[in-house]
Amino acid sequence: MKLHTKILLGLLAGVAAGLLLALLQIGGVAAYIRPVGDIFIKLLKMIAIPLIMISIMSATAAFVDLKKLGRVGLKGVSFFLVSMGFAVALGIAAATLFQPGKSLDPERKAAIMAEIQADGDWRQQIAGSGQAAQKSVADFLLSLIPANPFRAMAEGDMLALITFSILLGLAFNLIAPGKKDKVLPLLDAANDALIALVKGVMKLAPLAVFALIASVTAQFGFHFLLALLEYSLVTMGVMAFFLFAYYGLAVWLLGRFHPLTFFKSLRSVGLLAFSTSSSNAVLPENMISCEQKLGIGRGVVSFILPLGATINMSGTSIYHGVSAVFIAQVFGIALTLQQQLTIVLTATLAAVGTAGIPGIGIITLAMVLGSAGIPLEGIGLIIGVERILDMCRTVLNVMGDSAAALIVDRSEKRRERKRAWI
């Protein structure tokens, strides 16, 4: 049985087990199941940081033509920014059209707020979100450079690690050729060893997916999803449309690759993204799948995918757009065109450098709401379905990384073929 089939079976079994636990009102049992999934995620995250650093250093050092390196990076970043901008605009348009916030009656709104506030965690999340919203452009630029690379590794500061890895990879091009030739095989060997480790860890994926999904379903059930059904459906519907229509067309027209083959090849990656809600945790498996199943060059995979896992958040952008309009509608705020454009810009920029970990969308959403003058307290309305939507948007984020890598790789290969004919 193939891995993606095992993962799918684990996911379905997890949903069934979680619903049964919730129905029997023994959801606390999920606490004993959850550690299996947490161990799996920690193993993948353990591999992710050294894999990102080694793969980027190896790819950067291997680029003899630094102009090509710059071109590959520019193509990737351009695709990410355009995709995120379009994603948040699409989310705003869909929420404006379907108006999910106006269908939430005042009594239900009060009930949801009371239930969330009783927990108390939402206050801490909003407080943390407000602090994140105060981060200036200068602070962001400074965060690109790690004062201590080892501390950045310990804290999982991906954007700082990528900067350090690129600079160190470029530095290898400045040393004596004989020394560089000794370093590159060592980096390749370390990269292969980490990939072998990923394959070993992935054998635990079906069981881990079962544990993660069972825990989430038992804890939350579908109570909040039903209470916010229209908002959830609009958000997930836009994400599904963006995944299959936008990325499907991009892969077909720009990458000249059949969309069905693309999605079929990345089934296990999508299921893993849905289960873990972490772009960073999925990154090792995504790198293997893109290289071995899609035939993308290792240099592009090693450079674009880690970059995408850090700055490409198209799923999060849709979530920001729909959520901002939804909360504004609930509070009776009519957003002007200027406010909507501000949301597009802020949501796009807020995603850059965001950690690919579960629940981070709540933090960046506060930046978006604050920029448009929407009350941050509205975040409390959607915390109940945050986990479910987080699972969906992680799939879109990860697939967007893969689509970008494919498009950039095919573009570079076409360029090389044209130059060969000249």
Task: Explain briefly what this protein structure is.
By secondary structure, the protein is mainly alpha-helical. It has helices spanning 3-23, 30-62, 66-98, 106-119, 121-133, 137-143, 149-155, 158-172, 177-201, 205-220, 223-227, 229-253, 259-265, 267-276, 279-292, 298-311, 314-330, 337-351, 360-372, 379-382, 386-421. Helix 2 (30-62) packs parallel to helix 8 and helix 3 (66-98) runs parallel beside helix 17 (314-330).
Descriptive report:
The radius of gyration is 22 Å and the shape is globular. The protein contains 21 helices and no strands. Helix 12 packs antiparallel against helix 17. With 422 residues, the chain is an all-alpha fold.
Low-confidence stretches: 129-134
Provide the CATH topology: Proton glutamate symport protein
Shape: globular
Whole-number tally of structural domains: 1
CATH homologous superfamily classification: Sodium:dicarboxylate symporter
- Biggest sheet, in brief? none
Report the top-level CATH class. Answer: Mainly Alpha
Number of helical regions? 21
Number of strands: 0
> Strand share of the residues?
under 5%
- As a percent range, the share of helical residues equals over 70%
| Terminus-to-terminus distance | 48 Å
CATH architecture verdict = Orthogonal Bundle
Task: Summarize the topology.
Elements: H1 3-23, H2 30-62, H3 66-98, H4 106-119, H5 121-133, H6 137-143, H7 149-155, H8 158-172, H9 177-201, H10 205-220, H11 223-227, H12 229-253, H13 259-265, H14 267-276, H15 279-292, H16 298-311, H17 314-330, H18 337-351, H19 360-372, H20 379-382, H21 386-421
Helix pairs in contact: 1-10, 1-14, 2-8, 2-9, 2-10, 2-15, 2-16, 3-12, 3-16, 3-17, 3-18, 3-21, 5-19, 12-13, 12-17, 12-21, 14-15, 14-21, 15-16, 15-21, 16-21, 17-18, 17-19, 17-21, 18-19
